[in-house]
Amino acid sequence: MTHVSHTATTVATTRFVPHATLAMGTLGALVGGTMAAAKNIRSVKEGDMAREEAVRGVVREAAGTGLATAAATAVVGTLGITGFAAGVGIVALATGTKYLWDAGTNKMAASEPEAAPATVEKKATATKTSTKKTKVKK
Prior knowledge:
- With about 140 residues, the protein is mainly α.
- It has one domain.
- Helices cover about 70% and strands about 0% of the residues.
- The protein has four helices and no strands.
- It starts with a helix and ends in a 27-residue tail after the last helix.
């Protein structure tokens, strides 16, 4: 009897894994995109980044965090891990997946030829120079 009830519980639990995976992936994409947008807005305002580059960065981050979170949720849910161990598993797997995503997308971005030079001009910053004279002893 134990085997039957365990199997029924596993079937009932794994039936919800696709829904949880989709929900968590969406949440991960929203959080990652929001964080990237907050960072890139400041860079655009300061003139360090073009708007198009900022939008590409937000999309890349949203996709990466969404896929990493979804993949981690799918693995942990399929294995039937629950409680605190599930949280630790999701964080560990999502971190590793996002690390691999960043390595792959950074390598792809570096190998792309630039179509046009960036239109962002850095703001000139004035540097204060010292006019203090020093006396040299002979």
